[in-house]
Amino acid sequence: MTLSLFPQHTLQKAQGRQHLRRLLNWEEFDELRDARQSILLDTLYDSIIFAVGKGFPWVEVVQVVKFTEELLKETKGCSITEAVAILGNKLRDYQKQFNVTHLLALCDYFHNTFIRHYRLYQYVLSQDQEVNLTVAHVQMCAPPQPLPLTEGIDRDVWRHEQQVAELSAAEMQKRTGVLMLKETLSLEQKHRLQKAFGVEEAQLQLQHRPTLRREALERLVSEAIRIQIACLQELLQYEIQAAFDILDLRLQKKTLSLSAPPPPLPCITAGQAALEDSPKTSKANKGKKGKAKK
After folding, report:
1. Is the Cα torsion angle 74, 78, 84, 85 positive or negative in sign?
2. C-alpha angle 21/22/27, rounded to 5°?
3. How far apart are the first and last CA of the chain?
4. Are residues 113 and 176 in the same domain?
5. Number of structural domains, the chain?
6. Could you tell me which of 263, 256, 278, 193 has the C-alpha nearest to residue 230?
7. Helix, strand, or coil here: 32?
8. How far apart (Å, rounded) are the C-alpha atoms in residues 235 and 228?
């Protein structure tokens, strides 16, 4: 493996890990499902970052990667005591590959990372793990572009406008409900009248009479009046209740208008500032004139 052209310290971690995978001739794998391979790649990647950060030459960086791979393989399934002994033997084997400073730094690095978390490494790299993974694709919607601050309004004023708008919408809904009820009752009244006339017509056909008798006519007129009065009564009750509701909504709007927040104070412009300073200037000029006369 050649790392002389490996720009590990200049790439982002995700790009650097993929570049390292290709240099190691590893096939692509699922980072979520193959946790063992992913952690192994992270370990090799971190060892390179360590070596580059400590100023190892590129030839020694390659040896650090080789050292890491061999250490992970040779300590697989060993106890922590055996792992410490293996680490010491490997450091002696590689003492000709590094100078004393880099060898000590390498020893400290593996003691503070690999040995300190040795049980975790063994659990992940030595045992097969059963992965139950559920992947959900969630669509993220970016927030809308905010309006310029110059078009903003005070929070209390905005809340007041929202409350007034809600009351106006409720009033409009009440009026719409009255109109809809009128149309519904009109259709229902026609349906009831047609039904009553149809019943009377059926009775005439059964009695073989071509014309209405007086009793039948009176009964039909009475039924029509009853239907009309029932519909008008229902409409009148709804209109009365809607009128009370609308008056209550208007009262609430009036109360809100009386308790409306005050408008924001206007910004002091340069011209206004000059006008405010003018009395002070005139007083100063008068003082100077008085001293001159003395």
Report:
1. negative
2. 75
3. 99
4. no
5. 2
6. 193
7. coil
8. 11
Q: What is the DSSP string of 37-62?
A: HHHHHHHHHHHHHHHHHTT--HHHHH
**Structural domain that includes position 185:** 155-261
For 258, other C-beta atoms within 10 Å of its C-beta total 7
What are the Cα distances from residue 118, in Å, to 63, 76, 115, 123? Answer: 22, 10, 5, 9
DSSP 11: S
Q: Kindly tell me the sign of the dihedral angle through the C-alpha atoms of 52, 55, 58, 60.
A: negative
> Is 268 contained in some domain?
no
Structure tokens at 285: 């000029």
Q: Which distant-in-sequence residues (6+ apart) come within 8 Å of 224 by Cβ?
A: 193, 196
pTM to 2 decimal places: 0.40
148 within some domain? no
Phi, psi at 105, each rounded to 5°: -65, -40
Same-domain check for residues 122 and 159: no
Q: Mark 28-63 as b/e (b = at least 16 C-beta within 10 Å).
A: eeeeeeeeebbebbebbbebbebbbebebeeebbbb
- C-beta separation of 20 from 8 below 8 A: yes
Tens digit of each residue's pLDDT (9 = 90 or more) over 222-269: 878 888 888 888 888 888 888 888 898 888 888 888 888 876 666 554
Distance, CA of 279 to CA of 60 (rounded, Å): 80
